[in-house]
Write a structure and sequence with these properties.
about 240 residues
Length: about 240
């Protein structure tokens, strides 16, 4: 093809047809430019197609990650509700007057010292943020929900840290003033006998410091419950936007 065009140019020059040669040269340049533009457009189409396919994969991975997070949330939330219920019962029984011996105090305390912390996965989202891909997503609603999730996640981590600390405080107090052994045996994981010491965790219900620790724990448990509710709403919105089917 190149030899063909070269022969045409040579013929025009030898025949002294300069105007025709210039017109032909311009036409040849235009054809080359058109060819380059077509090649660039095809390349752009390919890049757009690859980008769209890659975005579909990312969105599918986000959907999978948040579905797993939702399942974990439902499981942890069940434990949280049981922990709140037990802690409220203990809190309502605290009084200064002589109290009856509650036979279920150890089983209630065993539930109350649970620390149902939820730690959702953020592997896909972190990878998307670190690569700069989050800002390039075409779905504006999804971007907005993911930005909201990132802000919420920081608040959630603070709540989980507070919950863990209230649990540490409560267990530490019981270790100094009550019997952890009598609480532990309420769990199926332990098969040893109750404490042989004359100690009854019921008397903790007359202690002001114990009341304060229970109050702290209950307060943060309810805060966690509210956070879990917000998390579920956000996750469902993200799943709605990442559902490609």
């Amino acid at each position: 093809m190149i030899k063909f065009f070269r022969k045409i140019r040579e013929r025009l020059l030898t025949e002294n047809k300069f105007r025709k040669y210039v017109a032909y040269a311009i036409g040849e340049i235009i054809l080359v430019v058109i060819g380059i533009l077509i090649a660039l457009q095809i390349n752009n189409w390919n890049e757009e197609r690859l980008a769209l396919n890659q975005e579909k994969v990312v969105i599918q991975n986000l959907n999978t990650e948040f579905r797993e997070n939702l399942r974990d949330l439902d499981s942890v939330n069940d434990i949280l509700l049981h922990t709140i219920g037990a802690t409220q019962k203990i809190f309502n029984r605290i009084q200064e007057e002589p109290i009856q011996a509650y036979t279920d105090i150890d089983s209630l305390l065993q539930l109350a010292i649970e620390s149902p912390s939820w730690k959702p996965s953020e592997f896909v989202l972190n990878d998307l943020q670190n690569s700069g891909g989050l800002s390039k997503l075409n779905n504006k609603k999804l971007k907005l929900q993911l930005f909201k999730w990132s802000r919420f996640f920081k608040e959630l981590q603070e709540t989980m840290a507070q919950l863990e600390q209230t649990n540490i405080n409560l267990i530490g107090f019981i270790r100094e003033n009550g019997s952890l052994r009598n609480i532990d045996i309420q769990s199926k994981a332990f098969d040893y006998a109750p404490s042989q010491l004359k100690i009854d965790n019921t008397f903790l219900l007359q202690n002001l410091q114990f009341e304060n620790y229970i109050d702290d724990k209950l307060y943060v448990l309810i805060e966690a419950k509210n956070d879990y509710g917000r998390a579920k709403v956000l996750i469902n919105k993200i799943l709605q936007e990442t559902n490609l089917h």
